[in-house]
Design brief:
373 residues, alpha/beta, six-stranded mixed beta sheet, 23% strand, 19 strands, Purple Acid Phosphatase, chain A, domain 2, single chain
Length: 373
């Protein structure tokens, strides 16, 4: 039996003010759907952040609708959970009717108690779709106001699933969360107060496979848990990552896993070199990719962006290393790549003339987490 694992489509996302809907349409119509038609998987697991924001633009909803319609035509069962970017209640529209067509939306914690059974060629895989949750939601569902932190909530939620395990079937969990020890990028939420948002991978050991969403880099999260990553590059720090989806092949208790790369309509890249070289390169072969150009010139370059943009129409930014290393940019250079709390502390020191107190940092973390979610 073959199963596709994908997540974090973020339909409707913008990159430096540019809509990525055309790029996302290309992924669905030229990569994912043709692969499904060709390889005929029994199921598709979509592990959250279907949309980039709770109230998705109409064009993003229409794109998702067309993709679902095609999946139904191809006869593949689809399991979908909302992520922290999705509006779960809006996604719940017609979920009862869609089950009859093989599309299973799990938009509440109660839905995780109704696993989806995939059967093919003598293989049986039981899928438990666990949507994104926060601690208050889990407390209310579990009726336990003493629970503290998402790890404790996850442990108790999983305990409700184990009695539903069917003997002889493989057991797969879908979840949208942050596993401790995983690598976080610039386009994800990195604000976790006191580690309360981190899930120990050991909690998942009773499952044969855990299909994760939330983090944008394809990576293992310990044991049998995997992040498939995003299908496209959604920030410049993802420029070096391979993007696509995971293909699981079941021939027994554990699946074999391979990453299926999806060639993008436009790549996201960082290009470094002197201004004259980048200009000549663009004139000889204009570049349609989303690019950040880093100038290595040792002197200022006037109107660099305006002069380069005709040959790099999807230019995201121009960085001048000479300017960064100058007196005005030394502080910015020293903070490059630093954690958000370090940047805030430096800003606070600059404005107020004193280091932030513990209460100031706690307030910053609270606000930052709310903004990034």
């Amino acid at each position: 039996m073959r199963i596709f694992h994908t997540s974090d489509w973020h339909l409707g996302r913008m990159l430096y003010g540019r809509s990525l809907l055309e790029d996302q349409r290309h992924f669905l119509e030229k990569a994912l759907l043709p692969a499904i038609e060709r390889e005929k998987p029994a199921g598709l697991l979509l592990c959250g952040d279907v949309y980039d924001r709770p109230v998705a633009p109409a064009e993003a909803i229409a794109l998702f609708d067309r993709a679902l319609s095609r999946l139904v035509e191809l006869g593949v069962k689809v399991c979908v959970i909302p992520g922290n970017h999705d509006g779960a209640q809006r996604m719940a529209l017609l979920k009862g009717a869609l089950r009859k067509s093989g599309v299973f939306f799990a938009t509440s914690l109660e839905d995780s108690l109704s696993p989806v059974l995939l059967e093919e060629g003598g293989q049986r895989v039981q899928v438990f779709p666990l949507p994104f949750f926060d601690t208050p939601t889990a407390r209310d569902f579990l009726g336990d106001p003493t629970l503290r932190g998402e790890a404790a909530c996850m442990e108790k939620l999983l305990q409700k699933l184990y009695p539903l395990f069917e003997p002889g079937a493989a057991h797969v969990l879908m979840a949208h969360c942050f596993c401790a020890g995983s690598v976080v990028g610039d386009s994800e939420s990195g604000a976790f107060v006191g580690g309360s948002g981190q899930i120990p991978p050991a909690l998942f050991e009773r499952f044969d496979y855990v299909a994760l969403g939330h983090l944008h880099g394809c990576q293992r999260a310990g044991g049998n848990a995997r992040y498939c990553g995003t299908p496209l590059k959604y920030s410049l720090d993802e420029a070096g990552q391979e993007k696509g989806f995971l293909v699981l092949d079941w021939e027994g208790g554990k699946p074999s896993i391979r990453h299926q790369e999806a060639m993008p309509l436009r790549d996201v890249r960082k290009i470094e070199g002197p201004f004259a070289g980048l200009l000549a390169q663009g004139e000889a072969c204009p570049c349609e990719d989303y690019v950040e150009l880093c100038l290595t010139d040792k002197s200022p370059v006037l109107l660099a962006s305006q002069r380069l943009r005709p040959f790099y129409p999807n230019l995201l930014a121009v960085r001048n290393q000479w300017a960064l290393e100058g007196a005005a940019g030394k502080r910015a250079l020293s903070l490059q790549g630093a954690r958000e709390d370090a940047v805030f502390a430096a800003f606070f020191q600059e404005v107020c003339g004193t280091a932030p107190e513990e209460a100031d940092m706690a307030l910053f973390q609270e606000v930052w987490k709310e903004v990034r979610l």
